């Protein structure tokens, strides 16, 4: 299977419809998988900071440090997708809606 730098990538959409996507590094890495292999990942705190950075329209990367690594109260949809190639491109994705209080 050929994949990017990360097999699993996140997206985050708030109740206002603003969406942040996790960036995929351009790469063509090869992995050899066996039956029942699993990929695990966690939502990186810098991804939440990036969401706040872009939503606020900030331009200077120095401002990223002032962005919180937690979500404010509200409803969010967290998406996760796997994109890879074997003979054709395959994409598997799912979403989960959460409420932060």
What does this structure look like?
This protein has 101 residues and is mostly beta strands. It has one domain. The protein is built from one helix and five strands. Strands 1, 2, 3, 4 and 5 form a five-stranded antiparallel beta sheet that branches. The model has no long low-confidence stretch (mean pLDDT 84).
Please summarize what this structure is:
The protein has 101 residues and is mainly beta. It has one helix at 45-55; strands spanning 2-14, 19-21, 29-30, 74-85, 89-100. The protein contains one helix and five strands, in the order E-E-E-H-E-E.
What are the key terms here?
five-stranded antiparallel β-sheet; 101 residues; 5 strands
* Structural class by helix and strand composition: mainly beta
Number of domains: 1
From the alpha carbons, calculate the radius of gyration and give it in angstroms: 16 Å
Q: Describe the biggest sheet?
A: 5 strands, antiparallel
Number of strands: 5
Distance between the termini: 41 Å
Mean pLDDT: 84
The H/E string reads: EEEHEE
Query: Approximately what portion of the residues adopt beta-strand conformation?
Result: 35-45%
Query: What overall geometry do the principal axes of the alpha carbons give?
Result: elongated
């Amino acid at each position: 299977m050929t994949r990017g730098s990360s097999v699993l990538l996140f997206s985050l959409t708030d109740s206002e419809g603003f969406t942040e996507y996790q960036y995929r590094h351009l790469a063509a890495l090869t992995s050899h998988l066996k039956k029942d292999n699993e990929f695990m990942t966690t939502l990186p705190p810098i991804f939440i900071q990036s969401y706040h950075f872009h939503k606020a329209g900030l331009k200077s990367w120095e401002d990223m440090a002032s962005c919180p690594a937690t979500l404010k109260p509200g409803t969010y949809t967290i998406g996760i997708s796997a994109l890879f190639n074997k003979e054709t491109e395959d994409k598997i994705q799912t979403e989960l809606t959460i409420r932060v209080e």
